[in-house]
């Protein structure tokens, strides 16, 4: 068996307690769960889950306008028309 090294993580106490409780219910301790995370990250060659920012209200409103083909401008015949519309 390969030797194991130590790692120190700084984490909020409440977050640590909640995670420990969750992992315990899955039959894991924090060390094993952390090891699983690293193995999955290596397997995925990145984070093993999606990381994204949720759109804010302004973005949702713009998406709705675009989906309903409201208030759309263009196509533009020139760059100056586009810039004029953007500055309006």
List keywords for this structure.
single chain; 88 residues; mainly alpha; 2 domains; elongated
Order of helices and strands: HHHH
Q: How many helices? A: 4
N/C terminus separation = 68 Å
> What is the number of domains?
2
Describe the largest sheet: none
Radius of gyration from CA coordinates: 24 Å
| Mean pLDDT score | 88
Strand portion, in percent? under 5%
Q: Report the count of strand segments.
A: 0
Query: Which regions contain 5 or more consecutive residues with pLDDT less than 50?
Result: none
State the share of residues found in helices, binned by percent. Answer: 40-55%
| Overall SS class | mainly alpha
Oligomer: single chain
- Gross morphology is elongated
Report on the structure:
The protein is mainly alpha-helical and 88 residues long. The chain has two domains: 13-44, no CATH class; 57-87, no CATH class. It is 55% helix and 0% strand. It has helices at residues 13-25, 30-44, 57-67, 79-87. The model has no long low-confidence stretch (mean pLDDT 88).
Spell out the blueprint of helices and strands.
Layout: H1 13-25, H2 30-44, H3 57-67, H4 79-87
What's a concise summary of this model?
With 88 residues, the chain is mostly helical.
């Amino acid at each position: 068996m390969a030797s194991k090294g130590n790692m120190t993580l700084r984490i909020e106490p409440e977050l640590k307690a909640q995670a420990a409780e969750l992992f315990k219910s899955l039959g894991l301790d924090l060390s094993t769960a952390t090891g699983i995370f690293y193995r999955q990250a290596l397997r995925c060659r990145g984070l093993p889950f999606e990381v994204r920012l949720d759109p804010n209200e302004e973005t949702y409103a713009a998406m709705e306008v675009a989906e309903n083909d409201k208030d759309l401008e263009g196509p533009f015949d020139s760059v100056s028309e586009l810039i004029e519309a953007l500055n309006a």
